[in-house]
Design a protein that fits this description.
Helix 1 packs parallel to helix 2. The radius of gyration is 20 Å and the shape is globular. It has 16 helices and 13 strands. The strands form two sheets. It has a seven-stranded parallel sheet, sandwiched between helices. By secondary structure, the protein is an alpha/beta fold. The two termini are about 35 Å apart. This is UDP-N-acetylglucosamine 2-epimerase (non-hydrolyzing). It comes from Oceanirhabdus seepicola. It holds the Pfam family Epimerase_2. Belongs to the UDP-N-acetylglucosamine 2-epimerase family. Keywords: Isomerase.
Length: about 375
């Protein structure tokens, strides 16, 4: 029997982190001919992850441009994949999550009548502009998808409510938990020396990321003002803000927080550095989606600097609080966690609802079942 040709497509660092363990699992399967195409929607940050996990792309569209627009990314991905699909003729294209690469990759596959598998399918906020453009990227990709790999039962429920057939949905857990099995080390020494100098035992180190489009402008300004206030009010707090390279974000952050005592402004770290900084930190403040899944796995409370989240499971479990970008809301909630040991313990001990480290295995087994290579009863993540 001929092999199933599966092409994995991704283009940003978060996608690469979550797709790398799946790519490795696909490569191990004798029934699958695994191909990888990166779009390089993010160039440098993507390459760091590829190097870390030893993933060698078969194709690299290298589409990134300075101050690139969403329409520009979309058209370059669709056009670039057209020739690759015509040459490779994959049986299945795998895309991940909610990036513009995800939507454009699924659209390009649809144009060639190639089946699409959506990893991390079914996350929804119900507001097409929050997060922007990710909410619609997910929904539009879902409309094209043939195999929906939902990380949680809640995600599956969202898909069922939209009319997706139950037999086309597989609850797998999130592949980021698979990735973290190989990246987190208890005795880790940072390559970024400034991080080695922090006193993680006697100081409360808060790791911060905030860069989303919907927070540009007033949102980022409020976050920065709140960080300054938190540091001034709490002498035992050190802040590490991983500042996105985009000038729209970077310029605002440096305007408010440069040269503030106990605030460390660093560029984005590679994946291993980031995961280990999380592991050593007291808590996380972020507008990222992925960190809402990663931090609970490490027992770290998360304050989400967004008005809505497509990951409600951690909020329900009690390990995540949704704050938005109101100055007083951020300061008040952060200071409660800093000073209330009982609440901190409750949040840090909450159960992570996102995975058990076996998501990639489940996805591969689901693919083999769907293409008739095997017929086994799949054990879904619960």
């Amino acid at each position: 029997m001929s092999k199933i040709k599966v092409m994995s497509i991704f283009g940003t660092r978060p996608e690469a982190i979550k797709m790398a363990p799946l790519v490795k699992e696909l490569e191990k399967c004798e029934a699958i001919d695994s191909k990888v195409c990166v779009t390089a929607q993010h160039r440098e940050m993507l390459d760091q992850v590829l190097d870390l996990f030893g993933v060698k792309p078969d194709y690299d569209l290298d589409i990134m441009k300075e101050r690139q627009s969403l329409s520009g990314i979309t058209t370059r991905v669709v056009k670039g994949l057209e020739e690759i699909f015509e040459k490779e003729k994959p049986d299945l294209v795998l895309v991940h999550g909610d990036t513009t690469t995800t939507f454009a990759g699924s659209l390009a596959a649809f144009y060639q009548k190639i089946k699409v598998g959506h990893v991390e399918a079914g996350l929804r906020t119900g507001d097409k502009y929050f997060p922007y453009p990710e909410e619609m990227n997910r929904k539009l990709t879902g409309a094209i998808t043939d195999l929906h790999f939902a990380p949680t039962k809640g995600s599956k429920k969202n898909l069922l409510n939209e009319g997706v057939e139950n037999t086309d949905i597989f609850v797998t857990g999130n592949t980021v938990i698979d990735a973290m099995k190989t990246t987190v080390e208890n005795e880790y020494k940072f390559e970024t020396d400034e991080l080695n100098k922090l006193d993680y035992d006697n100081k409360k180190v808060i790791m911060i990321t905030a860069h989303r489009r919907e927070n540009w402008g007033e949102g980022i300004e409020n976050i920065c003002k709140a960080i300054k206030q938190i540091v001034e009010d709490n002498k035992d707090v050190e802040v590490v803000y991983l500042v996105h390279l985009n000038p729209v974000v970077r310029d605002v952050v440096y305007k408010y927080l440069e040269n503030i005592d106990r605030v460390h402004l660093l560029p984005p770290l590679d994946t291993k550095e980031t995961h280990n900084l999380m592991n050593k930190s007291y808590m996380i403040m972020t507008d990222s989606g992925g960190l809402q899944e990663e931090a609970p796995h490490l027992g770290k409370p998360v304050l989400v600097l967004r008005n809505v989240t497509e990951r409600p499971e951690a909020v329900e479990a009690g390990t995540v609080r949704l704050l938005g970008t109101n100055f007083n809301n951020i300061v008040d909630n952060a200071e409660v966690l800093i000073n209330n040991a009982k609440l901190y313990k409750k949040m840090s001990n909450a159960i992570n609802p996102y995975g058990d480290g076996k998501a990639s295995e489940r996805i591969v087994q689901a693919i083999l079942n769907k293409f008739g290579i095997q017929n086994v009863v799949l054990e879904e993540f619960n």
